[in-house]
Amino acid sequence: MNFETIILAAGKGTRMKSKLPKVLHKVGGKPMLQHVIDAAKSAGSEREVVVIGSGAELVKEKFPGAEFALQAEQLGTGHAVSVAKEKFLNSTGALLVLCGDTPLVTGELLKNFFDVHQKSGFAATVLSAEMPDATGYGRIVREGDGSFKKIVEHKDATDAEKKIREINAGIYCFDTQKLFDALTKIKNENAQGEYYLPDALTILKDAGEKVGVFVTNDCTLTLGINSRVQLADAEKILRRRKNFELMENGVTVIDPESTFIDAEVEIGQDTIIYPHTYIEGKTKIGEGCEIGPETRLTDMTIGNEVKIQFSYCHESEICDSVVMGPYVHIRPGSKISGKVKIGNFVEVKNGEGSKLPHLQYIGDCDMGAGCNMGCGTITVNYDGKKKFRTVIGDNVFVGCNSNLVAPVTVESGAYVAAGSTVTENVPENNLAIARSRQTNKTTWKDKRK
Ligand code: UD1
Ligand code: CA
After folding, report:
1. Other residues' Cβ atoms within 10 Å of the Cβ of residue 25
2. Which atom of ligand 1 is nearest to the CA of 76?
3. Which of 378, 317, 308 has its CA nearest to residue 344?
4. From ligand 2's centre to the CA of 91, what distance in Å?
5. Residue ranges with CB less than 5 Å from ion ligand 2
6. Nearest of 438, 405, 432, 406 to residue 418 by alpha carbon
7. What would the pLDDT profile of 135-182 be if each residue is shown by its tens digit?
8. Which residue has the higher pLDDT, 321 or 338?
């Protein structure tokens, strides 16, 4: 049997001091809430309901496919769950409760947690961990025999309770109907005047139900993000986890400490990542590539055996065996193919390029295969109002320092003489010379004397 999930994400995130709702802040290049949803799904969750409130419209916009319940006023985590009651009237199984601000949790942990809850026949199970510094978390208070007694929030804890390092991870499994029943009984008589979800555990226990604690020995999985400092801590843990996962799968990461790879990036076997490199978003890299040093790739698709150094490439495609850099900027909508070298100091935008050895600006251009752009070639794509395209056929050779003023077509096999400013189409296999002729003055120097 499987379970349904509710994710609490209505809080304002006051301690973040941000205009953005807390759960939309990114770790590993992905919003916190997305990490939590993905973990639930991979653990086998049948359905996820997200409770939203503060910044609800923004959250909805970012998660168009998700199912939501609205908590108009944020009266506490217990209240947050109760507003979703209507959504679970027909649910007979278990309900996993997660917080949108614990993005480091994995599907594997949640699956083990649910399995234990299920097998033990508990009405409620809470996930706990020993934290080196438990400040801010709710503490697990145990009975003399070690069984669960209650959870006490940091702000309500006595000095003795504050010394407890076993914390409530904010992750629970409940018998769905027993939970909603218990929630009708919770009160808000505490330091924050809130309806605390953890109080539902005590209510169930007092009613004679079995309440269990599942302890994880990896406290990096349960880190809750309340502040920017904790956000940075989470980022570091996630980055380390990603780098290790890639290395386990046959990617060489020369210096994991200075390599920043987002959670969803895919990298093929025997690719080497050099230091000071950022690989972001949904980037996919093939096998046997050499990436970096000092390179930033965002939402890129990169083939096999590609080499890129000291460059920035985004939202574009680089095909097999391209060698690129130093100092190349590939801008969105570009495609580089054909086993070519892309330069020093080259910028390509929204077009296709082949051989661009140095100092080129190629924007809004469709270029065929086997072309060679001389040093300083520029596609003049903008007249101050509109952008225009340059079309270049196959095997075109453009001499150094040429301007191709768009809209213009240089057909296959054509040549453009160095220093030309081409404003008219160049037919197939023609040579275009578009500059004034040189004259040599034989007697000029004598006259000057
Ligand atoms: C909560 C737990 C604490 C636990 C910690 C783990 C309570 C009372 N405390 O504390 O025991 O150790 O998480 O990280 O549950 N939220 C709502 N509506 C609300 C209030 C909160 O949806 O009215 C959401 C928040 O958006 C957040 C989550 O619930 O995603 C947790 O709320 P937060 O205020 O961060 O609780 P903590 O103080 O961290
Ligand atoms: Ca929290």
Report:
1. 19
2. 23
3. 308
4. 27
5. 101, 224, 226
6. 432
7. 999 999 999 999 999 999 999 999 999 999 999 999 999 999 999 999
8. 321
Structure tokens at 356: 């661009």
Distance 226 CA to ligand 2 centre (A): 5
- 138, 167 Cβ separation under 8 angstroms: yes
Measure 9 CA to ligand 1 centroid, in angstroms.
9
**What is the pLDDT at residue 54?**
95
Residue 1 predicted with pLDDT over 80: no
Query: Which amino acid is located at 352 in the chain?
Result: E
Please list, in sequence order, all residues whose beta carbon lies within 8 angstroms of the beta carbon of residue 344, skipping any fewer than 6 positions away. 325, 326, 327, 328, 357, 358, 359
Nearest atom, ligand 1, residue 79 CA? 23
Looking at this protein, which amino acid is placed at residue 121? G
- What pTM did the predictor assign? 0.92
Ligand 1 site: residues with CB under 6 angstroms?
8-11, 51, 71, 74-77, 79-80, 99-102, 137-138, 151, 153, 167-170, 196-198, 224, 226
β-partners of residue 378 are 361, 403
pLDDT digits (tens, 9 = 90+) for 118-130: 999 999 999 999 9
Q: Within 13 Å of residue 120, how many CA atoms lie on the same side as its CB?
A: 20
Residues annotated as part of the active site: 358
Q: Which of 32, 36, 37, 99 to mutate to test the pocket of ligand 1 (most atoms within 8 A of CB)?
A: 99
C-alpha to C-alpha distance for 423 and 248, rounded to whole angstroms: 55
